Amino acid sequence: MTNSSPNFVKVFCGELCSSNSHSATEVNILNREINGIEANINVGYDRFVKDPESLPQRILDLLNIAAHIYCADRLVHRGERKSLDNNAWARSFEFHFPVLDLAFWNRQEVKNALSEALTFMTGDRIYNFVFEQSALGHLPKTEYKQLSIFKDEVEYIEGDNNTDVLLFSGGLDSLAGVVERLNSFPNNRLIVVSHKSNHSVTHTQNQITDDLKKRYDHRLLPYGFECHLRKMQSKEETQRTRMFLFSSIAFAICNCADKHNFYVYENGITSINLPTQTDAVNARTSRTTHPKTLGLMKNLFRFFDADFDIVAPYYNKTKEDIFKVFETYNEKNLLRSSVSCSSTRSKPGTFSHCGCCSQCIDRHFAAYAASLDEYDVDYTDDFIAKIPNDETRQRLWQTLRLASAEKMRTTESLFKNYPEEMVNLVEHWNCDNAEDCVTDVHLLFSRYGDSIMRAVKSIQVKHENLSVPIADDSFLSMLSSREYLKTPMQIRVEEIDKMLRASIPKTFHSAKPTNENDFSNKVEGLLTAAGNNFTREYPVLKFGITSYRADISDDELIIESKYLRNKTTPSVVTDGIAADIIKAQDAPGILFIIYDPERKIVDDIEFCRSFETKRDSCYVRIYR
């Protein structure tokens, strides 16, 4: 399979496969050898009932569907995250599934619910489904069992009124949920559902659950399952469909244990995950535990159980709040056991956390905000001492920007700047009306902003040494410059201004431009030549160059060049700038580059101010 994102991918599953190959437009996946075709995925649900074949057929179908969708997700490349083309990142699928309960899965409302849940949680375009009657249900029971998705190992789980089911990833939030429920309900048992995604994660999860079982009188019942590719390299590691896989097995366990809900512990900031500038294209922000994702999953499960619910107790908490759960129940020493890092493949040596991904950064800040940093994990790259790369710098900038941004100063500005996100939350938030929802979300992010700023202050107090200079590549330097208070447009303009102040005098030292068009062309050449030196990823801002006539079709920053020469008076330039401001009124930003070698402009500050106050994101810079 190529690394380009295909327009449409057909996925054939199980007995519908004619081979086990995969290409850019067709994927074949099966978990058992069928008709001489070798399996290419491993699906291993431990038995949570004595006889798995006694499960309702539609539940068996659900588990099979979830496993194959997850594996297909990993086999189809999305395209590069840095791509600005929406179509290059989202994918379209048509799944062909053999099912035991064809009448149920062929119901249009069930197909719609399944498709809606998957498209929202993944950010993909289309999930279509073609269901066919499976022949496996007509095979002898022993042969059918061999072809099933269950392993011989037994994790037999009995349900009662004092047993709860919880999704457990081994991360900080789900571990806090386990600790809180075991302490808050001392007579209850807890079934924790985990995905054995790789040996490292499985080892960590086993260590945590073994420890917790001893601590809490064996009231913790771990249930782990396997689902991964076999003899194939994954093409895509965003794994947005893993939540569907997790939820489906938790629902199946609930169904067998006569439980009508399960718990998802994830803090509200991570779940809502407001898009940053770099992730704004095509919902690239993760929505795996978004309130709408949980609501759509609940809607799907209610076709099986009309009373079913998915409960998210931490929906209005910050990561700092999660840290304090461990303090409340005197379990601070467990903090080092949890794994929050998303860079599972790139951590060297004994470090469990890279320190550079967004999850590590959020965790690092939260530990300082909660004054529990001494109990936190060690990071491969500690950005406080040195920011290792531009990507980490960008994430830090985004975090500080979100915490201090004017976009969320009021409920009105929050809704204005994030209308789609607020609409997605309203129906699925724990409140009675839209106004209360926006107010609750605003309060949550206000507390988050306060948490980040307290963390920053704590970092400064602990790490700033007034007797030595601050290193330029350190987080402390980033804080001292207050660069996070600047908009992306301001940062870009400052980069351009710094480069032009050095290059324009040298370029025109011996020969002045012949006319304004010549000046514009040379400015364009200077910017193009210096393009590789611009910090494109920090922050990401589409940058285009227009010479004399504004063209705002694709560019976020319009650049206009003016040249005061010979008999050209400042009033001529003034009229030209005023006309351009009107002409480019819909542009997010406009920069005027004025070359005035004869110093015809008397007061530079007043000249620039007179235009920069006429509209937002208008910048005037004068060069000689």
Blueprint (SSEs and pairs):
Elements: E1 9-13, E2 26-29, E3 41-47, H1 57-75, H2 86-89, E4 92-99, H3 102-105, H4 108-122, E5 126-133, H5 141-146, E6 150-154, E7 163-167, H6 172-184, E8 189-195, H7 199-215, E9 220-229, H8 242-256, E10 261-263, H9 268-272, H10 291-301, E11 309-311, H11 319-328, H12 358-369, H13 390-404, H14 411-417, H15 419-426, H16 434-463, H17 475-481, H18 488-507, H19 516-529, E12 557-563, H20 570-583, E13 589-595, H21 604-612, E14 618-623
Provide an overview of this structure:
With 624 residues, the protein is of the alpha/beta class. Among the domains are: 341-485, no CATH class; 486-623, no CATH class. 41% of the residues lie in helices and 14% in strands. It has a five-stranded mixed sheet, with helices on both faces. The longest helix has 30 residues, at 434-463.
Counting H and I runs of at least 4 residues, what is the number of helices? 21
Mean pLDDT: 84
The value of Rg in angstroms is 28 Å
Given as residue ranges, the uncertain stretches (5+ residues, pLDDT < 50) are 1-6, 278-283, 532-555
Structural class: alpha/beta
Helix content: 40-55%
Distance between the termini: 55 Å
**Oligomer designation:** single chain
Strand content: 5-15%
- Spatial strand order of the main sheet: 6-3-9-8-7
Overall shape: globular
Largest sheet entry: 5 strands, mixed
β-strand number = 14
